[in-house]
Structure formats: structure tokens, C-alpha cells
Specification:
The structure holds 2 protein chains of 2 kinds.
Chain A: E1 5-13, E2 16-21, E3 24-28, H1 32-41, E4 47-51, H2 59-72, E5 77-80, H3 86-95, E6 99-102, H4 104-108, H5 111-120, E7 125-133, E8 139-143, E9 148-153, H6 154-163, E10 168-173, H7 185-194, E11 199-202, H8 208-216, E12 222-225, H9 227-230, H10 236-245
Parallel strand pairs in A: 1-4, 1-12, 4-5, 5-6, 6-7, 7-10, 10-11, 11-12
Antiparallel strand pairs in A: 1-2, 2-3, 7-8, 8-9
Helix pairs in contact in A: 1-2, 8-10
Chain B: E1 2-5, H1 13-21, E2 26-29, E3 40-43, H2 49-59, H3 61-70, E4 75-78, H4 80-83, E5 86-89, E6 95-96, E7 101-107, E8 117-125, E9 139-145, E10 147-151, E11 157-163, E12 165-173, E13 176-179, H5 187-206
Parallel strand pairs in B: 1-2, 1-3, 3-4, 4-13, 5-7
Antiparallel strand pairs in B: 5-6, 7-10, 8-9, 8-11, 11-12, 12-13
The chains are: A alpha/beta, B alpha/beta.
């Protein structure tokens, strides 16, 4: 049986892993390679590296990091942050990333999804969606790290991303991110049941029960978490054992 | 030397470094010149079937692989490298494969399942094989694919995996082994198969 995936996310700034709440009070948390190797040994099902600086002057550091991580683990990993062109995708995949995640650039130029899927295969193209509730009870897509509302409906955008060839949706709730009050279950289930590609839930995990809820009520295929793993509040094994006890198929 | 075929689609370093870490002699090759001179050959794979077979035909790899397999030396196919061994695939149009084995490559159609089949799933062992030394029944491996093989000869099926229906997730016939799952991305259990294959290559070459 296909296991539900548990995915730790590493936020990277200038080649170092950083930890912070809502991207505030960023603290150095070590080397990306050490962290990735730690999660590889812990049986993370995949790893996401999110480069939150991703400015042009840190590109060399970025690719060195991707290459070093690829050479150190035998776990599939996704690279996101600052990927705007087919060339960016190509360089990351050549450096060893299994998948690339695109966000603002896909909104700006939706053909990037199609072109990327044609070139590297749908399985390599993750479309990241940052969504926030509006006062009409639906969800808007935000870009530029959550600073700009596009006014685009998140469900419609997810469907379009699928049609254009995305292999997966990485869905972050802006309302829940950093709150530790659980994923936005309504957002997760609405999108997961409307697309036939896998959906990864992100934003709001405080403990294993939130992940359980994401799978059962949010109906997602994978759950991403950052702080609960970084701060060693829970190990991946603890989360998986909790889920297994509740009959969620996981790989221990 | 174990040689890994590069048809310029993905990063093959994971496969290469796995062999090197175990102390095997291995390298990535861009042209078929050295194929016949190898004692182990690996055909990895990402991307689309049609595109891959076209590149393989154009570069001469198709012919070299067929001749190599006919020689009886150990061969390992991974993911698309498994699918390419069959006669035909319907991925983005009809394409003719290498035809080493009879059978077709088909798309998953089960409605309630998401496509691609992506993540860790279990391999149910159907027959004993030295290539599966150290692997327990129902071990999890990492999969990413939308198409699966349907071999005519069921005796070649090494493991099956359930995703909606049960499909052949690896095959073995003589010294040819091929897996739908990514052994280079399956942590310690994937590495065991890479090691088993490497040992088979070395043993075979010294006989």
C-alpha cells in the first residue's frame, strides 16, 4: 500500500539552515547537508529545501548546496525558492534535485509549468500555492512570499496547474503558517479532492495529531512540517508511530 | 567496469555514487562505445518513453544494449529503464521499445488513485533471487511513475506492488534485473539491491 509521506522542510538562507517563527528571529541552525543526512537516517519520505534568500548573488552557494545534499542522501528531495525559468529548473535538476517547486513565477508565466513538465516530466514539477482565506469564504492565491494578493481563486489555480502538467501541489495556508494550530483542513480537502495529482499540506503543524487530521480530514497525500522537526519537538519516527497506531499507512 | 547509460535527462550521480561507495568500479557513459567492454550495465531513467527511445536509437545505445543483454552479462534497469525493455508503450502516442521482453507499458487508469503513483510503496516478492538478498517481503521502495509494465511472461515477475490493482514492480530473467522503483532513492533497502547487483557483476566477470 502506498504510504502517506512525511516531509521535513529546511529553510535555507545563504547556504545555511535557518529556524524562525513566521520568518522572524531567524537563527542559524547549521549546515543543510548535516540536516538532510539527519532526516535521511530518520526515514523522512522526502525532503524539501526552500531557499528563502535566492537572490542572484547567492546562486553559487545555492547550487553548491544542492549538489552537496544530493551527494549525501538517498532520499528524494525538492528544491524551491527563486526558480523562475526553465534554466533555473535545469540547473537545480542537474545539481541533483529530484523536483523543483515554483510559486510566483508560475502565476506570472503559467507556461513555465507546461514547459517544465514537457522537459523534465510532470513528476519533477511541483507548483507551490500560498493561499489565504478571503471574506467571501474562499481562498486567494498570494505571491512574493505572501505579500501580494493575486485575487486568483486557489482551487481554480490548483486545477489549472494540474491541467498544465504539474505533478504535485505544495499547498501552504498563510492563515495557519506558524500558528501550530493545525493545517487548514477545509483548504486541504477542497483542493485535494478537486485535483488528481498528489497534494502536500503545509503550514500550521503543532504535533502528530495535526498530521493525522491532515491525512484523514484534509485528504492530502503528504504532510510537510518544519519547526516541530527542527526544534526536535517530535522525531519523524514518533510521528509515524503515532499515525501507524491510528491505521494510517506509513513507512516506519 | 560497471557502466551507467546517460541519455541526458536527469542526474545520475546518485546511481554512480552508490556503486562507488560500495567500492565497485563504475562510470557514466554518454556514448555506446564502451558498452560491450563492460561487466555490468545500468539503464536508469527519467522522463518520457518516446523521447528516451528516440535518443537511445539515435545514439546507438539501443543496439548496444540489445547486444549486451544477449551476451548474458548482468544488466540493471531502473524506472523508465525497466519500461524501455518492453515492446510497446502508449505514453504520449504509441512507441516501440527495445523488445527484450514481450508485453506493453500502460497508464494507470484506476479512478480513485492519484497519478503519478508517487511515494513509498511495498514490493511483494514473487520469486527468490540473489538480487533481492537481504530484502524482506513487503519492503518499501520509492516510486514515481504514471505508467506500468504488463509482461506477457508472468514468470519474469520478481515483485508486485499494489496501487489500485497489482502491477509488476520489478522483473528478473537470467542476469537481467529491472525495477520500477528508484533503488537509488530508496535509502538502505535500495542500496542493498545496488550492492547485490554490483556483486553479481564482479562475480560474473571473474568466472
Amino acid at each position: 500500500m502506498l504510504a502517506k509521506r512525511i516531509i521535513p522542510c529546511l529553510d535555507i538562507d545563504k547556504g545555511r539552515v535557518v529556524k524562525g517563527v513566521n520568518f522572524l528571529n531567524l537563527r542559524d541552525a547549521g549546515d543543510p547537508v548535516d540536516n538532510a543526512m539527519f532526516y535521511d537516517k530518520e526515514h523522512a519520505d522526502e525532503i524539501v529545501l526552500l531557499d528563502i534568500t535566492a537572490t542572484s548573488d547567492s546562486r553559487d552557494i545555492h547550487f553548491d548546496m544542492v549538489t552537496s545534499v544530493a551527494n549525501s542522501i538517498y532520499t528524494p528531495f525538492t528544491v524551491g525558492g527563486g526558480i523562475r525559468t526553465i534554466k533555473d529548473m535545469k540547473l537545480n535538476i542537474q545539481a541533483g534535485a529530484d523536483k523543483v517547486s515554483i510559486n510566483s513565477a508560475a502565476i506570472k508565466n503559467p507556461d513555465l509549468i507546461t514547459d517544465g513538465a514537457r522537459r523534465f516530466g510532470s513528476q519533477a514539477i511541483v507548483v507551490a500555492i500560498d493561499a489565504k482565506r478571503n471574506d467571501k469564504g474562499s481562498f486567494d492565491v498570494y505571491v512574493k512570499g505572501g505579500r501580494e494578493n493575486t485575487g486568483i481563486d486557489a482551487i481554480e489555480w490548483a486545477k489549472q496547474a494540474e491541467q498544465r502538467g504539474a505533478g504535485e501541489i505544495l499547498l501552504t495556508s498563510m492563515d495557519k503558517d506558524g500558528t501550530k494550530s493545525g493545517y487548514d483542513i477545509e483548504l486541504c480537502s477542497k483542493i485535494s479532492t478537486q485535483v488528481s495529482i498528489p497534494v502536500i499540506a503545509s503550514g500550521g503543524v503543532g504535533g502528530p495529531e495535526d498530521i493525522y487530521n491532515g491525512f484523514v480530514n484534509g485528504k492530502v497525500d503528504a504532510c510537510l512540517a518544519a519547526s516541530i522537526f527542527h526544534f526536535r519537538e517530535y522525531s519523524i519516527k514518533q510521528v509515524k508511530e503515532y499515525l501507524k497506531e491510528k491505521d494510517i499507512p506509513v513507512r516506519l | 567496469m560497471i557502466r551507467i547509460i546517460n541519455y541526458k535527462r536527469g542526474n545520475l550521480n546518485n546511481v554512480l555514487k552508490a556503486f562507488l561507495n560500495f567500492g565497485f568500479e563504475a562510470e557514466i557513459i554518454d556514448s555506446p562505445d564502451k558498452v560491450s567492454d563492460s561487466y555490468g550495465l545500468v539503464l536508469p531513467g527519467v522522463g518520457a518513453f518516446g523521447d528516451a527511445i528516440k535518443t537511445m536509437n539515435k545514439t546507438g545505445f539501443s543496439r548496444a544494449v540489445k547486444e549486451y543483454i544477449a551476451s548474458g552479462k548482468p544488466f540493471l534497469g531502473i524506472c523508465l529503464g525497466l519500461q524501455l525493455l518492453f515492446e510497446q508503450s502508449s505514453e504520449f502516442g504509441e512507441h516501440t521499445g527495445l523488445g527484450i521482453f514481450k508485453g506493453k507499458v500502460k497508464k494507470f487508469t484506476v479512478k480513485q488513485n492519484k497519478i503519478p503513483h508517487m511515494g513509498w510503496n511495498q514490493a511483494n516478492i514473487k520469486k527468490q533471487s540473489a538480487y533481492l538478498k537481504g530484502i524482506d517481503d513487503n519492503t518499501f521502495f520509492y516510486f514515481v511513475h504514471s505508467y506500468y509494465i504488463e509482461p506477457e511472461d508472468k514468470d519474469i515477475i520478481l515483485t508486485t506492488t499494489k496501487y489500485g490493482n497489482e502491477f509488476a514492480s520489478s522483473i528478473q530473467s537470467g542476469n537481467v534485473i529491472a525495477t520500477q522503483f528508484h533503488i537509488e532513492k530508496s535509502q538502505e533497502n535500495g542500496l542493498k539491491i545496488i550492492k547485490n547487483f554490483g556483486e553479481a557483476c564482479v562475480n560474473n566477470s571473474s568466472n
